[in-house]
Amino acid sequence: MAGKFCVTITECRSDEDKATLGFVVANAAVGSDKETMVFLSADGVWAVVKGEMEKVSVGAPFAPLAELVGKFTANGGKILVCSPCMKKRGITDDMLVDGAAAAGGAALVEWLSQGSPCVGY
Q1: How far is CA 49 from CA 2, 6, 44, in A?
Q2: Confidence band (pLDDT; 50, 70, 90) for 113?
Q3: What value does the mean pLDDT of the chain take?
């Protein structure tokens, strides 16, 4: 069954497990033919910053975060990053990995208003 799915992630540096598990679930959704969007906010924005996501690896049986993010975008997943959260942390658009884009909360509201279920980490 086709449809949309959303994963929100609010932690990365502060809790690497949450960033990792969020992308594990996002990959499962993409693999189940769901149009999937990950929305990163607060500390979660670090999950797609070049040079930062490579530092996150919680160990077996989970793949490193960089691998999970790469797989997600390669399979058509969409990543939106809270622009005010980026600004607060001094993160600019050019610091984000390919496939991630800055967006405001209105983009999340629009996605969810189309009937998408959402899980948060």
Answers
A1: 30, 20, 10
A2: very high
A3: 96
Count of Cβ atoms closer than 10 Å to residue 69 Cβ: 27
Residue type at 28 in one-letter notation: A
99-103 LR contacts (CB < 8 Å, sep 24+): 99/69, 99/72, 99/73, 100/40, 100/48, 100/73, 103/39
Name which of 45, 93, 88 is nearest 69 in CA terms: 45
pLDDT in tens, 24-77: 999 999 999 999 999 999 999 999 999 999 999 999 999 999 999 999 999 999
User: Which strands, in side-by-side order, build the sheet including 100-103?
Assistant: 100-103, 78-82, 34-40, 3-9, 118-120
Q: Where are the beta strands (DSSP E) in 10-110?
A: 34-40, 78-82, 100-103
pTM for the model stands at 0.95
Residue ranges per domain, the chain?
Answer: 3-120
CATH assignment of 3-120, given 3.90.1030.10, 3.30.429.10, 3.10.20.30, 3.40.1260.10? 3.40.1260.10
